[in-house]
Amino acid sequence: MTDAKLAEGVDPARVPKKTLATGAQIPAIGLGTFGSDNYTSDQIARAVVDAASVGYRHFDCASVYGNEHLIGPALREITHSGVAREDLWVTSKVWNDRHDDVIASCEQSLRDLKLDYLDLYLVHWPFPNAHAPGVDVSSRDAHARPYIHDDYMKTWARMETLAARGLVRHIGTSNMTIPKLELVLRDASLKPAANEMELHPHFQQPELFQYVLDRGIVPIGYSPIGSPSRPARDRTPDDTVDVEDPVILSIAERLGVHPAVVCVKWAAQRGQIPIPFSVKRSQYLATLQAVVGEPLTDAEMAAIAGIDKNNRLIKGQVFLWKENQSWEDLWDIHGEIAQ
Ligand SMILES: NC(=O)c1ccc[n+]([C@@H]2O[C@H](COP(=O)([O-])OP(=O)(O)OC[C@H]3O[C@@H](n4cnc5c(N)ncnc54)[C@H](OP(=O)(O)O)[C@@H]3O)[C@@H](O)[C@H]2O)c1
């Protein structure tokens, strides 16, 4: 990083890190790369390069985001600019329609991302139920199935093979529940290093959050700002808005920052790794500065703990497998894996 860039960025050495069970260190904030309908893959790839220039070192990717082929050249540009590969943290995920074909899917992500290895590879969802990008929430996969543990463990065994072959340094889960993780932890040879889950002030998932922490699994929090720009199809009338919450607004006013920054500060201070998305320099610089700047007070942390509304935004309706089923079945809210 040049002196000029450093002046307007954050020295990556100052960004806190979390230690995984292997001893590896993951930057305590990452940049999301899912642009949904709002941004082009090219804009996102440019943002990745520029975010690295302001100090981001951790990027959250996935094959289903449809942009890894452009993020690969962006990562190349970053390493050619002098950032060592070992100083980057790149996550990718296997999509639902490749659970039987994990190794080939990972190899494709590696080719697209122009990497020899991934730092973390996740099973994106615990169901092999796929849907075309951008479909309405009423869309259903005719072959959709509930969570079948034996099938998931076959997929997990392929994940373990990737780790054994050195193609990925860590493997992990995403969109899981405690009942599902109980079974995976019982049967896995290689335990998940991280679990990516929706986490923001209005959806704090305290039980699952504590469950993973207690088992040495690092929680990575997606939609940390409450995904304020998600498309209409991903909104329901009862959804609440984190960045409009009076508690968040008053802390933002005290600090003189955007409410999004307060959400990211809270996330990092609580102990999850937020992965905010943005293609705008002022925004991704602000979220990176959030994790090195003035912390929230204990009273502010307690006040935010008190505004949890259990408001899940990414409900996953498109993965349902039965007629007239509630999206809550995807999340085992009765403590059992719904069939
Ligand atoms: N594992 C999974 O299943 C899963 C699911 C969902 C997401 N993810 C990951 O999580 C990432 C983030 O989630 P997300 O995009 O849903 O939601 P998010 O990060 O909560 O919200 C992103 C939006 O917040 C706004 N924003 C960002 N920084 C800001 C700032 N400093 N000030 C003001 N506004 C700011 C931007 O809105 P504008 O664009 O309108 O400016 C941006 O588009 C994704 O990109 C993806 O990598 C993973």
Task: Summarize the helices and strands and which ones pair or pack.
Elements: H1 3-8, E1 17-19, E2 25-27, E3 31-32, H2 41-54, E4 58-60, H3 68-80, E5 89-94, H4 102-113, E6 120-123, H5 149-164, E7 171-174, H6 178-187, E8 194-198, H7 206-214, E9 218-222, H8 246-255, H9 259-270, E10 273-274, H10 281-290, H11 298-305
Parallel strand pairs: 3-4, 4-5, 5-6, 6-7, 7-8, 8-9, 9-10
Antiparallel strand pairs: 1-2
This protein binds NADP nicotinamide-adenine-dinucleotide phosphate.
What's the gist of this structure?
The chain is of the alpha/beta class and about 350 residues long.
Which keywords apply here?
binds NADP nicotinamide-adenine-dinucleotide phosphate, TIM Barrel, NADP_OxRdtase_dom, Aldo/ket_reductase_CS, disordered N terminus, Aldehyde reductase, 339 residues, two-stranded antiparallel ribbon, eight-stranded parallel beta sheet, alpha/beta, NAD(P)_OxRdtase_dom_sf, oxidoreductase activity, 10 strands
Q: How would you characterize this protein structure?
A:
The protein is of the alpha/beta class and 339 residues long. It contains eleven helices and ten strands. The protein is globular and about 50 Å long. The strands form two sheets. It has an eight-stranded parallel β-sheet. A two-stranded antiparallel ribbon has the order 1-2. It has a single domain, classed as NADP-dependent oxidoreductase domain (TIM Barrel). The chain has helices at residues 3-8, 41-54, 68-80, 102-113, 149-164, 178-187, 206-214, 246-255, 259-270, 281-290, 298-305; strands at residues 17-19, 25-27, 31-32, 58-60, 89-94, 120-123, 171-174, 194-198, 218-222, 273-274. The longest helix is centred in the middle third of the chain and has 16 residues, at 149-164. NADP nicotinamide-adenine-dinucleotide phosphate binds at residues 32-34, 38, 60, 124, 174-175, 196, 222-230, 258, 260-261, 275-278, 280, 283, 286-287, 314.
